[in-house]
Amino acid sequence: MTAMLSTRDLVAGYEARTVLDGLDLDLPADAFTVIVGPNACGKSTLLRTMARLLTPRRGAVLLDGTAIRDLPTREVARRLGVLPQSPLVPEGITVADLVGRGRQPYQRWWRQWSTEDGRAVEEALAMADVAGLADRPVDTLSGGQRQRVWIAMTLAQDTEALLLDEPTTFLDLAHQVEVLDLLHRLRAERGRTVVAVLHDLNQAARYADHLVAMRAGAVVAAGPPREILTADLVRDVFGLDCVVVPCPVTGAPLVVPARTQTSAVPAATPAPAGASVGDA
């Protein structure tokens, strides 16, 4: 496995709180990696640190073997496209203008908007299925439409790797599948490296070439889903009893939660004959 992104003895967190403590991880190039784990386990912190949005307290993030902190910002922006959680929308901006901001790493004072920029934006709008919204103000869109516009902006950046924090947030099931199918095609047909945080374990198992399971700021297991995703792992990471069976469509591991035991709900006591609701 050739690692494109790696962490070495990574320590990161917020103010006095340490989230990642001594994390070592290798993410393969030309693969779709999905990071899973319970809430507040460090998934987003890891993604933000790898994207150079959060400065580590100790250790390093390596991009093709070079410490990412030592690389010029413009070079990082040309190599890593990043979609964080809940990005802020500039007031009054249209969809086309926002997607066009994905081309900023290629701009210079002597090289402004080009034919190549226009082609990249049009292609990104089409891939994310938002071409029909190009002239709409972003702040008039639904949450799902906005999410697809942000994905289009990331695609317009035309980087060799994409880092996406919960890219299916706000999307209905059909659009979740469309977005994940798109990311899978980018990996399979264009050789992109894709790293995404997902909450849906079955979607992660279906689409990931490489799965990273985290708990309490540490990596519990990493590898192909068919090799590492077991009932024991789900119980260890999520505290959930389940069975893992092959998906009837893809053959990928399918997690079926065990039914939780609940106390019986007592039957309602029948009202005395002749009583009305107002008598209670």
CATH superfamily: P-loop containing nucleotide triphosphate hydrolases
Looking across the biggest beta sheet, what order are the strands in? 6-7-8-3-9-10
Q: Give the % helix.
A: 25-40%
Count of individual helical segments? 9
Structural class: alpha/beta
How many domains? 1
Quick one: overall form? globular
Radius of gyration: 23 Å
At the first level of CATH, the class is: Alpha Beta
| Content of β-strand | 25-35%
Mean pLDDT score, rounded? 88
- CATH topology label: Rossmann fold
Distance between the termini: 71 Å
> H/E order of the elements?
EEEHEEHEHHHEHEHEEHHEE
In short, what is this structure?
The protein is about 30% helix and about 25% strand. By secondary structure, it is an alpha/beta fold.
What does this structure look like?
- Helix 6 links the parallel strand 7 and strand 8.
- A 6-stranded mixed beta sheet has the order 6-7-8-3-9-10, with helices on both faces. A 4-stranded antiparallel beta sheet has the order 2-1-4-5, covered by helices on one side. The protein has a two-stranded antiparallel ribbon with strand order 11-12.
- It is an alpha/beta fold.
- Mean pLDDT is 88; it is low at 275-280.
- The protein is 30% helix and 26% strand.
- The longest helix is centred in the middle third of the chain and has 18 residues, at 173-190.
